[in-house]
């Protein structure tokens, strides 16, 4: 547990409720991952997540079905979202994800087991996957 102050939390009384939820969720993700399952997911108002589309379906499916410390292939996610032949479209959905980490596109990997690309850079994707794996292992022991 880090004792460093959270700069985003300074002036927290001025934050809107969704921003407070987002801050609490991200703090838990990095510092107390076991809590993320019990925290409310912040409200998402991005237009991409409002209109009915395969991208929206994929992102919500990912958020709902692929848990902390798990990974799924593009093909598996296409299957879960209702179109087993749309693995390439899943890649497009990951590229257009407006809120990475909250909607965990880093958990989507290639069928070969390679991590694949990530908008935040491949080293960041590898770090996030490693962070989740290590934290999940800690919870099991």
From TrEMBL:
Name used for this protein in its record: Methylated-DNA--protein-cysteine methyltransferase
Requisite cofactors: Zn(2+)
Pfam family, one: DNA_binding_1
Catalytic activity: a 4-O-methyl-thymidine in DNA + L-cysteinyl-[protein] = a thymidine in DNA + S-methyl-L-cysteinyl-[protein]; a 6-O-methyl-2'-deoxyguanosine in DNA + L-cysteinyl-[protein] = S-methyl-L-cysteinyl-[protein] + a 2'-deoxyguanosine in DNA
Protein family membership: Belongs to the MGMT family.
Entry EC no(s): 2.1.1.63
Keyword Nucleus: yes
InterPro entries in the cross-refs: MethylDNA_cys_MeTrfase_AS, MethylDNA_cys_MeTrfase_DNA-bd, MethylDNA_cys_MeTrfase_DNAb, MGMT_N_sf, WH-like_DNA-bd_sf
Gene designation per UniProt: Mgmt
Signal peptide bounds: none
One example of a Gene Ontology biological process annotation: methylation
Domain annotation Methylated-DNA-[protein]-cysteine S-methyltransferase DNA binding: ranges: 56-133
GO molecular function ontology, one term from the record: DNA binding
């Amino acid at each position: 547990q880090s004792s460093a102050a959270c700069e985003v939390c300074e002036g927290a009384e001025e934050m809107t409720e969704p921003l407070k939820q987002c801050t609490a969720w991200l703090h838990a993700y990095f510092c107390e991952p076991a809590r993320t399952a019990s925290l409310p997911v912040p409200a998402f108002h991005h237009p991409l997540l409002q209109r009915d589309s395969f991208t929206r379906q994929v992102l919500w499916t990912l958020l709902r079905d692929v848990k902390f410390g798990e990974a799924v292939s593009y093909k598996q996610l296409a299957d879960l979202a209702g179109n087993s032949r749309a693995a390439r479209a899943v890649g497009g959905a990951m590229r257009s994800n407006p809120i990475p980490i909250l909607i965990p596109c880093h958990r989507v990997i290639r069928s070969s087991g390679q991590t694949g690309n990530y908008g935040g850079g491949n080293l960041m994707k590898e770090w996030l996957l490693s962070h989740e794996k290590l934290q999940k292992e800690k919870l099991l022991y």
